[in-house]
Amino acid sequence: MKRRTVLAGIVLGAAGLPLARAADAAPVLQVWRTPTCGCCGAWVRHMETNGFRVEVTMQDDLSAIKAKHGVPRSLESCHTGVVGGYVVEGHVPAGDVKRLLRERPPVAGLVVPGMPAGSPGMEGPVSEPYATLALAADGTTTVFARH
Description:
Elements: H1 2-25, E1 28-33, H2 38-49, E2 53-58, H3 63-68, E3 79-83, E4 86-90, H4 94-103, E5 109-112, E6 131-135, E7 141-146
Parallel strand pairs: 1-2, 4-5
Antiparallel strand pairs: 1-3, 3-4, 5-6, 6-7
């Protein structure tokens, strides 16, 4: 009887290994946001739905976090994230972040300044065109993607 129990545990454990490894392989996205911002929560859900493990830190003032990660004031949005050594500022689509992590360009991160209508977390009846910008270490930007 013990032998069957041990064998069953080995089989069930082995069956669960790929799932555990897949969860461990999901990129961890650290996000700083304010407790009162609803669109930040919607963006976090967008990222989780798209395979990111999100760790959220709530704080009232994000200016120190943004400065630490080199986000110029003119490019700020309502939340700041870090994943794979890159800063992710604002309502950046998950697909853009996945591309960033796949291609690993020599940039500081990605930015969607402001809160464009129709971007992830800002969905609604109205959408506007917007760009995801690649942020260089010197604060300059180039277009990474258009939406």
